[in-house]
Amino acid sequence: MEFIEIDKFYILLFPLIIGTFIWLLKFFVFYYRHNFDWNYAIKHGITYGHMPSAHTGFVTALATSIGYYAGISSGSFAISFAFAIIIIDDALHLRIYMGDQGKRLNFITRQMNMNEKDFPRLKERVGHRKSEVLVGGILGFLLTFILIKLFG
Is residue 55 part of a domain? Predict the structure, then answer.
């Protein structure tokens, strides 16, 4: 019977730990800056967008761990790198446009005095600013190397 090397688990384990850590950090930063409200937290949890980008942190940590353990010339790294570019681009561009549309639709529904029960208010902040993506990427990269040095 062949056993799987523990290093192979680190490739996914480290990004999961780091993604969770960054998500928790985002949760505390968001509610520190916007005053914690239990009703809002239960209804919405953590919102999309805001500092830092957990999606970017996770995919950066994933690409970094695959690059370290499998090598940057591996097919796995190439796929994870492409995956990271798509996720980061989505956070920076596509979701910003979705938020803009939500803002405009909310304006229209208010102007037309539409029933909020039939037309609930849409989220207007679903994307990330460049600084939020940058901080998420830096955290993902640095935290991965810290975990590699501690456990790898």
Answer: yes
In a domain, 126, yes or no: yes
What crossing angle do the helices spanning 54-69 and 130-151 adopt, rounded to 10°?
40
Q: Are 127 and 90 in contact (CB under 8 A)?
A: no
DSSP 8-state secondary structure symbol assigned to residue 119:
S
Q: How many angstroms separate the CA atoms of 44 and 38, rounded?
A: 10
Q: Look at the alpha carbons of 34, 35, 40, 46 in this order and tell me if their dihedral is positive or negative.
A: positive
Alpha-carbon distance of 121 to 132, in angstroms, equals 25
Dist. CA 122–CA 89, nearest whole Å:
22
* pLDDT tens digits for range 108-148: 887 888 777 777 776 666 677 788 889 999 999 999 999 99
**Residue located via tokens 């957990």:** 54
Q: Which domain holds residue 146?
A: 6-151
Residue 36 to residue 58: CA distance in whole angstroms: 25
Q: How many domains does the chain have?
A: 1
Q: How many CB atoms lie within 10 A of CB 37?
A: 11
Q: Quick one: tokens of 95?
A: 């979701």
